[in-house]
Design a protein that fits this description.
GO terms for molecular function: 2 iron, 2 sulfur cluster binding; disulfide oxidoreductase activity; metal ion binding. Pfam families: Glutaredoxin. By secondary structure, the chain is an alpha+beta fold. The chain has helices spanning 3-16, 33-45, 58-68, 86-95, 97-104; strands spanning 19-23, 50-53, 75-78, 81-84. It has a single domain (3-107), classed as Glutaredoxin. The protein starts with a helix and ends in a 12-residue tail after the last helix.
Length: 116
């Protein structure tokens, strides 16, 4: 795939899925601690999401960094918006901001009344 094809494919995944996590490994078997933390947070919140293993395709691994202008993986997208990587997602979760954002965007989760 060309760089543009990769960007188009990433854009389609982000547009077609309410919540997308570009990660190392998958939600059942994360391949790095940072990906595991974000997957655990989403799992704790009961959020349905599409997981994309960037280790399966180097063009996607590099392409998602260019797509978001963010240098690391994992990367979380909600309703087409780039949320951030592990540190940002963890901080938002601990402050209750992630749950607020999910609720505001109409993303079902089981933590409407919970905070970390």
């Amino acid at each position: 795939m060309s760089e543009q094809d990769v960007q188009d494919w990433i854009g389609k995944q982000v547009a077609d899925n309410d919540v997308v996590l570009f990660m190392k490994g998958n939600k059942q078997m994360p391949q790095c601690g940072f990906s595991m933390q974000v997957a655990q947070i989403l799992g704790h919140l009961g959020v349905e999401y599409k997981d994309i293993d960037v280790l399966q395709d180097m063009s996607v691994r590099e392409g998602v960094k260019a797509f978001s202008n963010w240098p690391t993986v994992p990367q979380l997208y909600v309703k087409g918006e780039f949320v951030g990587g592990c540190d940002i997602v963890r901080e938002m979760f601990q402050a209750g901001e992630l749950q607020e954002m999910l609720n505001a965007k109409g993303i079902a989760n089981n933590a409407q009344t919970q905070t970390a």
